[in-house]
Amino acid sequence: MRNLSIESAVVSGLPASARENAPRITSCAVDADTNALYIVVERASADRGICVEIWKTAESNATDLQGPLASLETSENVLHDASTSTSSRVVSARVLPEARSICVIINYGDIAMLSLEPGASPEFDIVGTIESGIKAASWAPDDSKVAVVTGNDDLLLMSADFTVLSEAPIHIYEFGEDQSVNVGWGSKSTQFHGSAGKNAAAADVALSAVGVSPDDDKIPRVSWRGDGAFFSVSTLSLGAHQAASTHRVIRVYTNLGVLQSTSEPIHGLEHTLSWKPSGALIASTQRFLEGRGKEGRHDVVFFERNGLRHGEFGLRLWDPSDKSVESSGGRNGKWGYRIKELAWNADSLVLAVWVEKDAEDVIQLWTTGNYHWYLKQEIFPLMTASGTSRRFTAMLWHPEDALRLVISTPVTLEDYRYCWETYNSHTSVASTNGTVAVVDGASVHLTPFRLQNIPPPMFSYKIDFPSAPSSEMAVPIHVSFASGADVLAALYHKARVILWSLGTRGEGVGGKIAKPSLMWDGICSQVVRAKQVSLWIGSGGNAWRIAVLGKRSDSEYEVVEIIQMHEGSTGSNVLDLPISQKSRLVKSEGDGIFLVDDNGQLVRLRVDDGLVQPTSSFPEYCFSVQSTALGIQPIDKRLYFGLAASGKLYASDDSLSATTLSTSVNSFVLTPSYLIFVTNSHDAFFVLLLSIPMLISSAKASTAALVETWEKRRVERGSRIVVAVPSAMSLVLQMPRGNLETINPRPLVLEIVKQDVDMGNYRKAFLACRKHRIDLNILVDHDPEAFMRRLPDFVEQIHEVDYINLFLSGVGRSSQPPEKICQFCDAIRKQLEDKDLKKYVNSILTAHAVKSPPDHEAGLSLLLQLKETERDLVEDAVKYIIFLVDADSLFNTALGMYDFSLVVMIAQHAQKDPREYLPFLKELRAMDPAYQRFRINDHLKRYLKALESLRLGGSARYEEAKKYVEKHGLYADALRLWKSSKAEHEGFLELYGDFLFDRRDFKQAALAFSVAGRKRKAMVAYERAHAWRELFSLALSLPRAEFHQDELKGMAYRVSDDLRSRKRYGEAARVLLDYAQDLPEAVIAYARGNEISEALRIMSTHPSKTEDLDLLESIIKPIALELREEIAEDIKEAHEQFVKQRNRLIELAEVKAKDPETFYTEQDAAEMYNIDVMTDAGASTAVTTFTRYTAAPSASSQRSKQTSRSKRKQERKRGRKGTVDEQEYILQSIAKLVARLETMRTECQHLLPHLVVFSAEHQEAGKALQHELRSFEEALIEGVDAIWKSTGGENEGREGERSSGKLIQRPDMPKATWAIGLMELDV
């Protein structure tokens, strides 16, 4: 639904001094490297010959052409006859970039070259001549070959240096190498032939009846395919037998000159020829003569490369009802026109048709979409002050700039640049109809997408604009819609403007889709070459401004003529612009007139004083520009968006700064809240307009973060935006073929939904969410407080039960906190209950079911209330709630309510098998109520409620309750329930104590037994807990009759043995002394615990027993010597360990200093034993120096997961000799030796004082012990200082090693006075 709009139109001409001898521009050539145009001018010479001149126009677009650069005198052309005396002598003019020259081929046979190098000779070089002359010539697209048709009707194919590659006669009667083989199916004989019948399929085409169009100029044409692989030649082919069979034939050749195919005979086929650059079709024209179809029919026809027809479209050039043309006797017969040339543009999207009419020439631009051909533009020769001929002499598309068309008249050159534009109504206005206009000849097709979605080429309605006496008024140049009004303006070639009030009907209103009516028709007298029109409506609605952009007749600078209409009066102002080429009026709402110039500068046109005020700028010129005002303070804050030809989308504001939003955009549109654009990577982006100012002013880093927040969605490949309709929440996209796709983007839908919620229009918002599958929870989340206030309105508007159920389901699935969900559901439920309980019973059940957690029981309770009075209603409600909730869960809930009728009803409607539930229900009915509830709750795994039901059963159920408590671990609940019954409570306490005893929580079990009065069990638990104080206290509290002294003594011996096994010698001795009255065993216990001082004190308190047993000699002194030997053995072991580890550290330090590589690769040989070789490469490759210390994966390290057993094995290997952790392990072990030294000091401090006083033997033993400990202490202190000084206490590793590199802190070694001074003396 795109249209062609003029971007710029530049006219340059021959200077007045060069217009002698009737000069005539006959050909053009484009230099793509310098973007310059070269013009071939022919004029009569003194000897009746022709002088060919080369002129030039630069990119500066000067008014006059530059030249002549060179000239070439020719003689009278022998090929010309009277009918072609006004034709051009130049057959082809082409700039050859590689040779930096221009090649001119003249019809009498000369091929001339002119060098374009700076400083080259301004003379033509004749590189060759064809004696018979040249009828047609065409260069390949890559300039590597040229195809020439000679005067003898031979086809020459030459290279770029004019070496002949092939030569053959043009008139041959073979089809070519692509001659198809007829196998029956798919052939012409099997196809449908309409009213002609089957006989037409068998009949051969009579060549004598084909005929030639009277418009044929008898000249051959040559056209190349875009890739240069093939070219086609159109000639008048003479029949093999008679001259009457002359007809136009198109032949296709390869780029080696080999004939591939010949077109089928076509009646009235004309001379025009143009091969589509994309390679699909070859275009020509066909005139239908009398008896060959509809009178006056004239088509553009297409051929495939194999010569077969492939579609056509009709030209709209002749009106049979217009008899003035036929009676005038013009040069073009009764039709008054003929087709001179066809030309495809570079991207194959536009076909230019050059029409020669009796009065003037016209060039039509045609495009196609969805298999329909649209006439988009008509170009007429521009009248100049000198009144030159209104005829074209040449037409050329730019080879790289696809929409640039160069046309020449005899003395002027017209350079047109076009752009694609979609004529849509202002989408930045919320009330827009989304109307899109498509120009198709004299008609404008209109579709308001807010009301109808009709794909092209169809449309809702059309406007046939009134034609004027001049044919120039047929096709509008530009179309524009008013902002805020349903009005359309159309601009024509002579600056004629027509305003139409479209009268589009409102939404939901019957009748015609629109009733267009003419509002105004006038001409802008100050503008000659108009190219754009824009329309604004004043704030009051009765004032209009029409701005027409174009050029004056006497100036190359552009002007804007502004027509102001107010209450029937009309006035105009003209603003001159300092712009000579590109400029565009900006689409904007309001009454501000903005314009963008060729440098990207945005200006505001002040109509009152005629000033041009700069407002903002883009980095480059943008053809498509839109402006909008933000609805924030300040009110006049405006944003500008521009799309450049490079695909970059810019955004700017009044601060004269701009930012690039994207670099690959093909189309964009504005809505009241969003900027929407589609990229070439097939993504549609939705950017909130309020975020654009921050984006413009922020740095690049923050810009990237903002871009990530834009919402986007994928669209079909090649999609372009047609229009956005905010009120309909839709975005219309057009596919490359032309078909439409309407989507409802989430941002647009949410915007309208939020607006409706704010206005309290909940029904419209709900229906929109339901239609577009938006989470209905947005109705609540948008403004929860307002929703709660308007809850009665919500229920009143959305009165359908199904709609309320759907809404409640959405609320239940929302991300709101559970308490919020329950609050909303309860509030809605209360409103429904107050309004009509019976009608909304299903909705009320839904409100209970979607709560978090669900309250199924409350819903079933409601059904119980209604069951007696509304049984049918309840049955329907049961069916609904079964659909809503899992049937088994609902069955269990009903069972837990102890109502068997409701249970049976749910089971029946849930289609449960009666064999599954009826026996169980029958069994329950036979039980008493309390036990019945126990069985139900137990079945539902509601164990606490089941226990409560057993409690109601009284003492008869006590034993079963104990088993139930023990089975389900309900001890705390049982103690709470039976707290008032002492006997049962103590029983449950004992049960709880047994439970704790089994869990080996003996201390807690003993407490439970004590509270329950089970002292014997408590004593056992205390003994197992080693709580001997509580044990003997409880034992002594028992009556003597229940607990004898012998039992007490036996218990004391058991407890003391247990304590001694745990090295609690002091406590064991206390038990033996207090409860067993066994002094010797108590002394032994104290002595074994190195508490000799306490043993001596106890002995002193029992002197009689001590003397009788001689405990000092028999027990204490021997044990003292045993303790000395044990401590000495520990000191010796620790000392030897320290010496070995210190020596190993010295060895490691020497190895590391001498050969670090050996240090880091040393490995225990045992680890290499029995290792499987996984690959030959692993077996032959030497181990690198860091293999064991890097994290690089190897065959052995690529195991899935280590088991716990293998991990323990690896832990045991840690610290082995030669491993990477050895040094760290040794340092940690030495730190532990320091801690052991402290323990040894303490033990010696307790033992040595007694060794000194016992005997001489004990003294010697004590001295030796003290010496050994002091030696170990000194060695350890010295060694620790040296080790931590040399290593720093850190397991030093290399970068990348697997060693942890953990820092081992130097252990503290506080000084202690443990030694006995007397042992240092010789006493």
TrEMBL record:
Keywords: Cytoplasm, Nucleus, tRNA processing. Residues 1202-1217 have a biased composition (Basic residues). Signal peptide: none annotated. The keyword Nucleotide-binding does not apply. Residues 746-924 form the ELP1 alpha-solenoid domain. Residues 1110-1275 form the ELP1 three-helical bundle domain. It comes from the Eukaryota. Pathway: tRNA modification; 5-methoxycarbonylmethyl-2-thiouridine-tRNA biosynthesis. Pfam families: A-sol_ELP1, Beta-prop_ELP1_1st, Beta-prop_ELP1_2nd, HB_ELP1, TPR_ELP1. Residues 1190-1220 are annotated as: Disordered. InterPro entries: A-sol_ELP1, Beta-prop_ELP1_1st, Beta-prop_ELP1_2nd, Elp1, HB_ELP1, TPR_ELP1. GO terms for molecular function: tRNA binding. Residues 931-1097 form the ELP1 TPR domain. Residues 438-722 form the ELP1 N-terminal second beta-propeller domain. It is found in: Cytoplasm; Nucleus. The keyword tRNA processing applies. GO terms for cellular component: cytosol; elongator holoenzyme complex; nucleus. Residues 1-400 form the ELP1 first N-terminal beta-propeller domain. Belongs to the ELP1/IKA1 family. PANTHER family: ELONGATOR COMPLEX PROTEIN 1. Component of the elongator complex which is required for multiple tRNA modifications, including mcm5U (5-methoxycarbonylmethyl uridine), mcm5s2U (5-methoxycarbonylmethyl-2-thiouridine), and ncm5U (5-carbamoylmethyl uridine). The elongator complex catalyzes formation of carboxymethyluridine in the wobble base at position 34 in tRNAs. This is Elongator complex protein 1.
